[in-house]
Structures are given as C-alpha cells and as structure tokens.
Request: fold
Amino acid sequence: MRILLAEDDPDLSRQLKASLSDAGYVVDHAPDGEEAHFLGDTEPYDCIILDLGLPKIDGVSVLERWRREGKTTPVLILTARGAWSDKVSGFDAGADDYLTKPFHTEELLARLRALVRRAAGHAQPMLVCGGVRLDPRAARASVNGEPLRLTSLEYRLLHYLMMHQNRVISRTELVEHLYDQDFDRDSNTIEVFMGRLRKKIGNERIETVRGLGYRLKPLHDEVSDL
Amino acid sequence: MRILLAEDDPDLSRQLKASLSDAGYVVDHAPDGEEAHFLGDTEPYDCIILDLGLPKIDGVSVLERWRREGKTTPVLILTARGAWSDKVSGFDAGADDYLTKPFHTEELLARLRALVRRAAGHAQPMLVCGGVRLDPRAARASVNGEPLRLTSLEYRLLHYLMMHQNRVISRTELVEHLYDQDFDRDSNTIEVFMGRLRKKIGNERIETVRGLGYRLKPLHDEVSDL
DNA sequence: CCGGTTCGTTCAGGTAAGGTTCAGGTCTTC
DNA sequence: GAAGACCTGAACCTTACCTGAACGAACCGG
Reply:
C-alpha cells in the first residue's frame, strides 16, 4: 500500500508519516499543492491524504484537477475544525472521505482501511478466449475488439461456452443450463444457435465433436494471453 | 437512489427522511436493529444510514452480520458526539463513512453523494456519457450543452443509468432502485419513462436489450472523452 | 375553494425482435 | 454407399417492448 501525504505542517507531517509507516504503508510526502499535484499525477498511489490548506495551490484545486484528468485514486481530505462548509465543496470536488483536525490517529487509520478496501472491491472478471472477450458485468462481448451484437440466448450460450472453454460441452448440458426443466429434448435449437454464433464469432472457434458436443477454443495462432 | 435509514429517534428520523426525499432519494425507514437487518438483507439499497444506538440489535452487530453475509452496500454510520472509539470499531466492522451527531444536513448529503458515487466506480462528481452530462449536486442534466427539462422521475432514471452506463440494467433493478418496497411489479411505467427519456436525450442513446433490460451508451461517433 | 397545470401511472393496440420448428442438405463413419 | 449426426435457410409465432392517449393525484395561484 503506497500513500501520498500532502500536508504542510512539519510536525504533523512527521508524526503522521511515522504512524502510517508503522501501520505498514509506504508514504511519500508533499509539502505543498504543486508537489502534491505532480506526485499524484506520476506515482500510482493506493490512497491520498490531502490537507486543504496547502501553500502554492490549495487542496480543493489540486483535487479538482486530478478528477478532471480522470484520476480515480481514493482521496481523504484534512481540514481545520469548524470549516464544515469546506467539507461540502471538498466532497463535491471528488473527495472520498473527510477528517477534521485534530483527530485521533486511530481514526485516520480506520478510515484509510475502509477507503482502500472499497477501492479494491472493483475486480471485475473478464472472460477471454483468444480474440473473443466477454464482460459479464456489462453483458457485452467482442471479437478482436469489434463489439458483437448478440441476442439474449446467443449471449447466454457464448457465456456458458466461455466459462468452460477448451472443454467439450454436450448438447444436454447446454440445454440444462440455458433452459428450465421442461424443454423439448429432441429439438435442434442448440444447433441452430451454434450456427448463428459461429457466423458471428468465426466458424473455427467452435469445434464440433461428433457424438459428444461442442468445444470453444482460441484459434490456432492465437496465443492464450489475457 | 434508494436508501435505508436505520434510526430510532422519531424526530430525527422524520426530519432526515424529509430532507433525503427532498434531495431525490427514495427512503425506507427502520426504527430498530432487527428491522434494519431484515430490510438490508432483502432490499437492494444504494446506501445505508445506520445509527449505532439502535434498540434490539445494535448497529455494529447489524453491520457485522451484513458484511459476513457478503453484503457490500456502502454504509454510513451515525453516532453521538465523543464516542470516537465507536468509530474505529464501526469502520472495522465494514462501515464506509461516519458522522457524529449533531451534524449539518448539508454534510450528510455531501457524504452520501460521495459514497454513492464511489460505490458506482465514479470518482468524478460530474457524470458524462457522450454528449450527455449530469451534475448530481445541481440536479441538472444537459445534452450537447443544451439544458434538459426533466421531471423528477426522469431525472432519477437518467441518474441511475449514467452511474451504470454501458451496463445492461434490468427493469426490475430499475424498479428496485427508484421505488420503495411496495410497487406494482408488473407495471409498465419504466417502459413509458424510457420512451419519454429517449425523446429528450435521443433515441439511440438508450439501447434496449430484449429480455435483459436497457443500456445507456454514448453514440457511435462520440468518443469516450471526459 | 376552484379551475389549471404538472406528472406519475394505467391501459390497449400495434410492431417487430428473436425463439422455435421444419424440411431439406451436407458431412462422417462404418 | 447407406445411416445417422449435424448444418442451415426460411417460415412461423409468441411475447417483450413501444406508444399515444386518458386518468387521477398533487400542487398552485387566484
């Protein structure tokens, strides 16, 4: 965990840096808004602690710039007691949390844990098979970067195949996962949809294993990257 | 945006509920820990405001249970002044933010905006999707710089869509986040509002994914800038 | 208290997207 | 070369979705 501490008061800075290091964070220190902005732009921090009353450029401006540039690092703001209207503008500039001086170090640490935890909770599983990618969260798929237009069933079919790629999937297994119990067992819809899917993602990507089922796999020359 | 307010003080509850409703949130109220836990388990809230001093089950326990069950909804905790050691245990139980009574309603609203924003994965306060912009703090939206005249529900609908743009949102998800518990599940208001929204922001911006829901996205030629 | 406006909701008819079916055609295997 | 497994184009038909219009509750100024 790497943290940027933007704070001008030397005493407070030293004390905070010590506490944070003790807690296992790696801490960079910026004594003014200019350096804070520069460091925040260039280094990949997991979290930023930002004092609002910084020399050269004030905290809110720094924060606004970062957000305008698309930076999403969680930011915790520090300010003097009673300036609660600052809080509102700070939050609306894109801050994720706020703390009023003086504060207990314990509380700062707790808030940091909460921030980092939440920021890390954005792991989205993206399914990849050669040039084919499928994003379950967005319900979207693409082949070689080109977005695919899939119908609901085509999508579900592809999804299932991608989750079990390189394995042979029987028609009955597919039916069982795509439909509810009562489904005409001797229907050829699966075949039809295999045909349609093949047209959209490329024939060779779905191999048919006669008598057993189908197998989704990357093309021969496609390295299994991610 | 749908919120659960878990607070036992009747006066404060009433006042907060009014303020939150005014700010455009849909609010469910739980007067004790038992009901809070139940509601939080069953309904999909965008955020939860949790008083620590609740009857029946105290706030920290409720929160701990939710987190143990894997619930990730952002939670903002309320407590009486000076009980700052509560804060630490509150945060470590999985709270995302903390507010000490008494507080300014403004500040609560600002913190809520920040929480909801972050939970949706947006660090910046201004929502942008192609030519459509929405400013949550001014409750204003525009398309290609032209301000939009939106009714309350149209606005909330657009807001939710913009927070989850490029993702398919099911009708039920929308209903659950725009209305409180008792709402006629087989009503077509969502469709009607989709129609009205489309008329105002442009038909092609909202794609309907048959059988799944809707997806808000930039137009083809609109670069995903900021 | 009353007409007018605004908005959310309901309803009914229309449309077309997308799933299923079917009838051949093609390929495999023995 | 026959039989069975698989492919495929086109037709069918269900139903999700769209849309215009009307209803009714809430609000507002007079």
